[in-house]
UniProtKB/TrEMBL annotation:
Keywords noted in UniProt: Chaperone
Pfam family, one: UMP1
GO biological process: proteasome assembly
Lineage top rank: taxon: Eukaryota
Similarity annotation: Belongs to the POMP/UMP1 family.
Protein name (database record): POMP protein
């Protein structure tokens, strides 16, 4: 064989197979928390799914009404502005309030549950900054 042993190993075993992704990936408790089979199967309340999708449903209704009134260009322009504003965020270990998105949606003058008691999914738990940046950039 004219090829060396190193090239044989490199050709026969892809390095990506050793990564921790796929069906046999272990559950990362530090990043995802504890798992519960019951919580993954059923919502805890019949209205939970409706409440989770409330903003999406309201946006679709507003886009349809805007399209009927002003034409196709208005919802497309607004969706482009939404995407541009969503991309601007703080570092991954800091909470981002998305005040620009709230202003575009008209929610900046509304007082909701998350304004007083904060959204439970956005709790003020700060992780290790270096590890979280490496995870976001795909280095970890």
């Amino acid at each position: 064989n004219s090829r060396g042993a190193a090239s044989l190993l490199k050709d026969s075993i892809p390095v990506t197979e050793f990564s921790a992704s796929g069906p046999f990936e272990g559950h990362d408790l530090l990043r995802r928390g504890f798992t519960s089979v019951k919580n993954e199967l059923l919502p805890s309340h019949p209205l939970e799914v409706s409440e989770k999708n409330f903003q999406l449903t309201q946006d679709k209704t507003n886009f349809a009404m805007l399209r009927n009134i002003q034409g196709l260009h208005a919802p497309l322009k607004l969706q482009m502005e939404f995407r541009a504003v969503k991309q601007v965020q703080r570092l991954p270990f800091l909470h981002s309030s998305n005040i620009g998105l709230d202003t575009l949606r008209g929610n900046d003058e509304c007082i909701g549950f998350e304004d007083i008691l904060n959204d439970p999914s956005q709790s003020e738990v700060m992780g290790e900054p270096h590890m979280m940046m490496e995870y976001k950039l795909g280095l970890l």
